[in-house]
Amino acid sequence: MGKKVPSSMLVFDGDKKHCREADKYASVQIFGKTDKSPLSYQPGEEMIFSFEADFGDVKPGKWSLVYERKGDDHRTFSGKVPADQPLTVKTSIAGPGFVNVNVYLVNGRGTRLTKLDYRNKQAPIGFFAGAGVHIETLRDCGEPEDFDEFWAKQKKRLELVPFKDQTERILEKEMADGFIYAVSIPAPGPRPATGYMTIPRGAKKKSLPILITFNGYGLIRQLTPESIMPGCIHLHINAHGQKLGQSDAYYEEFFKSICTGNVSYTYDPELNKNPETCFFNGMVMRVLRALEYLKTCPEWDGRNITASGNSQGGLQTMWAAALDKDVTKATPAVTWCCDMAGSAKANRLSGLYPIAYQPALDYYDPVFMAKRITRAEVTILRGGLGDYNCPPTGVAISYLNLATPHKTIHWYQGSDHGFVPKNPEIITWTTQK
């Protein structure tokens, strides 16, 4: 169905089913480290990466540790050692940027060994290491001159679409501790903002903070939540504006309909030539309209709003905090689409499945949104030093560009987009005391 995107970014309804296959390599893992803090290297300084396999309760065969080095300098090399021996990779980078060394465990035929990941799917046993030079000096590629004017115009479009008397809010389920509602909120663009909202039982007027959450990328059929989020008004919206509670046939046709140009949604190069026709435009309108609706809830305390999400959800979180000044806290993770121009304009290493760069996409880039986040406390919950779905260069720039005085990022060594190693090394940057 159009351009393929990585399984780490796609989640289908069938993923809810548990895999019954025995996970015979569950105890097998790879450990890795650098000879000093991975973000403290100087230009040209030797970086020494060390790796070793832990076989757990498994007797290894003729296995090997294979590695590939890549980086923002576009140098690549690879190699392997027997898996029962330590692996050392020495490299460097001349200027500001990241180096990435991915290590996998393979059998005698060169096939990667796998085990169940957090989604109950088979994934390669690996360690996704990274290190950087002068990361704090990285800069974006320049924003559109009319960035703020563009978003002022989009907010005018919001004002022209009424919602207060036209929002559908249907009680989906009543539970002992609260209520679950299906909501559909009119918004500019082809579809409304839709999702599920939970409110705790007995909530009084002006007593609760707001939490709005967003999904990662994917053709995701949104399901009714199974529990009430305690202590808050919680709204989880989908990215697409899909109708809720529909038939399998509806979702099959719906997801086909949003994958235009023979590519997956958001990837259509024709739509992406214009910032008002690209798929992201409707997504932003739905985010802002959902926030407007939440602020009409009588239970809202009038002060606290948190936005949160991973990957595509991290992108939406950054939009929310930048474009709605009432958002007080934002917790994105592995934020998608940071520094979309970086490969084309600065020759940086791109993500594995990048959206083909068009200048119109700059209006949606989190590195520019970050400059407009002046009030919210922002904590980037995870930046993977080996994540090349959402490369660390862009995530770093999004952090550096944040205008808020209250910002934090947690860098995870060995982590790619979805995988986090056991007992990971975490490097924290923060302005908090």
Question: What does the model show?
Answer:
With 433 residues, the chain is of the alpha/beta class. It folds into two domains: 13-137, Sandwich (Immunoglobulin-like); 147-430, Rossmann fold, CATH 3.40.50.1820. It is 16% helix and 30% strand. The protein has seven helices and 19 strands. The chain has helices spanning 147-159, 248-258, 279-294, 312-323, 342-346, 366-369, 392-401, and strands at residues 29-34, 47-54, 64-71, 77-82, 87-91, 97-106, 114-116, 122-124, 126-133, 168-175, 178-185, 193-200, 208-214, 233-237, 300-310, 329-333, 377-384, 407-412, 426-430. The strands form four sheets. It has a ten-stranded mixed sheet with strand order 10-11-12-14-13-15-16-17-18-19. The protein has a four-stranded antiparallel sheet with strand order 4-3-6-9, with no helix packed on it. A hairpin with a 2-residue loop joins strand 10 (168-175) and strand 11. Helix 3 (279-294) crosses helix 4.
Can you give me a brief rundown of this structure?
This protein has 7 helices and 19 strands. By secondary structure, it is of the alpha/beta class.
Rough outline:
globular
Provide the β-strand percentage band.
25-35%
CATH hierarchy, class of the largest domain: Alpha Beta
Main β-sheet description: 10 strands, mixed
SSE series: EEEEEEEEEHEEEEEHHEHEHHEHEE
